[in-house]
Write a structure and sequence with these properties.
Oligomer: single chain
Low-confidence stretches: none
Order of helices and strands: HHHEEHHHEEHE
CATH class of the largest domain: Alpha Beta
Number of strands: 5
Number of helices: 7
Strand content: 15-25%
Mean pLDDT: 82
Amino acid sequence: MAVTAETVKTVRQRTGAGILESKNALEETGGDIEKAIESLRERGIAKGVKLSGKRGANDLNQGLIESYIHTGGRVGVLMELNCETDFVARTEDFKALAHNIALQIAAMNPAYIGIDDLPENPSEQDLEASLWDQPFIRDNGVTIKDLVTEAIGKLGENIKLTRFVRYEVGAD
């Protein structure tokens, strides 16, 4: 399949990647849009892992508080997502990431953010209650950690979920 301007545009719209990155991914995959998107996702995750490893969590003093109230008002989430600059915190990509994580928390009721927050001898149930390792509710092929790491690669800054609380009517 030939790489056309239309296929490049489609890949760009679905991934947020640049023109050249989209074109190169399409050329590498023989014009297959889905494979090109997966390739770009993997590169974004790899770039995010590299960036998050380089930069510590010391300078994550910007970000936003995201709230989500589920339809019917019986479940609510309040969470803090941090980044390095207020410029990134104001981007639509960062806001969308915060919203998606809040949706995940509302739907899956995790008890912990990640492995570092687990008790000393975690059970299998504790591991399943870790937000970072849960499959994303909108795409089961991606974990929340992958989603955040991909955003780090795309936005060029380290991102960290600092804390969250989930409320449910009638739950203790």
